[in-house]
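Q: A reviewer asked whether we had any structural model of the full assembly, not just the individual parts. We don't, so I'm hoping you can provide one. Inputs are below.
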Amino acid sequence: MRFLLKFWMAFLNNPEHLQVVPNTGFTKWLTTFTAGAMSFLAVVGLAFSLICSDLSNEWGESLKNSSSLRLFAPTDLLEKQTSMALAILEQTRGVESARLVEIGAKKKLLEPWLGIDFPLEAIEMPALIEIKETEAGVDYEGLRLRLSAELPSVRLDNHSEWRRSIEVVSKLVSQLGLVTVVLIILSSIAMVTMASNAALSANVKVLRVLRLVGAFDTFIVTAFVRRFTLRVFLGSLSGTVFAGLILFFIPTFSENLGILDDVSLEITDTIYIASVPFLFAIISIFVTRNAVKSSLKRLV
Amino acid sequence: MLEISKVSYSYGGNSVFSDVSLSVAPGSFYFLTGPSGSGKTTFINLCAGSLIPEIGNITVFGEETKNMTNYELSKMRRRLGIVHQECEFLDHLSIEENIILPLSIAGLDSIKERANVLELMKWVGLYSKSKVKPQELSGGERQRAALARAVIMSPDIILADEPTGNVDWDMSQRLLQLLVELNKMGKTIFISTHDLSLVRLAKSHVKARTLRISGLQLSQAGVDL
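A: Here is a predicted structure for the entire assembly that you could use as a starting point for your response.
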């Protein structure tokens, strides 16, 4: 922490740090490109994980304490049986509300598969009743028994079972995303280390000259750390912004499809993603510091 | 000022010199001669604290280099002016920026010091080349620029390793003249060279001692050089 503070103070105060390390050569682009590419991958991996986690939570919440009832009957009996089913549900303990899903809502649900203009009214469709439960929940076995006795054509679907499956799968996907992010960060450390070492090898003469003219090791370390960290930060910022823009426009592309509408980042997710260039900068500070220190040790 | 006491040094078991002792007084002028590979550069590097003796001690300004931290070694180097044969510079900076570099990194880069740098550049004959990059200079100009950089901090001792190694005789004379002038200002000069004619020339201007490294030993060379 003390080193970070010292580095920050030097960053603000000493322009000669930047002056002594050349900002040219292939290593400049190597470091910047590496940081940019790895940040892009890290942001995509992180967003992938965060979106899965958000979707899982969202779907879980929407399916929490909910169930549905499908009612199959000839058209002339459908309305009567629907009213009977709604009446039964009103009398059932644990049911907070029950409402018939209107044809417009059904159309909306099926739009991605059947298209906008599909004449859903022309085909025989079961009536669909959405049930919201209280926290205490419904006695499903009791309700099923009553429905089978009074309305045999009714099917009761408990959404908790779907919810559990969705939660398991999305948790797995989310964890996979996190593992990907961790691997990307570890690879980034390796890549930034290699880029820093390559840059240092190309600048051994600068180290020798600085030693010759009486520069303190802390000055040399800070000068290189400052130059390389700026490169890494700018590269990482570019990669993050590029990935962020793509993620930002994904919901726009999917707008007319009716799917992936929820593929967007929350404010907290954006904060995590915005922290990627800073994380890369911190990695660069420590990696470059160690690389310069070992180069100085080898220097005659 | 500079004490070398029973110093031995070797590279991978091959001794360069052994049991060498020398005491350099302030304001003196030394030439260190010897054939190629005899250890002249190693000797200069030991005095500059770039190498640490395996056996014996080197004391610079009253401190043993062996016991110095990296920080203390850097501080010591600020009181030494070092000129190497290769004359390395920061290629992305101009000659003026390179010469002022020791001041910049010591935080002494003031307007007054900048004016002094220009005076110094006039003294070494590089005033017109102040904005030029090091790679655009000739060998002799690089040597003079390296000398200007070495003296910018007004060091007490100037260690020069083959400063005339890559230049013609006229330029060697000019460089020697600059070093003689520095010595007359009270600076201690320690030059390694294989060019004996330079030593002879120097002795006509200044009281210079000549040391010779050969057969692992450092000895006072004859006055007939």
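A: Points you may want to mention in the reply: Chain A has a mean pLDDT of 83. Chain A is about 70% helix and 10% strand.
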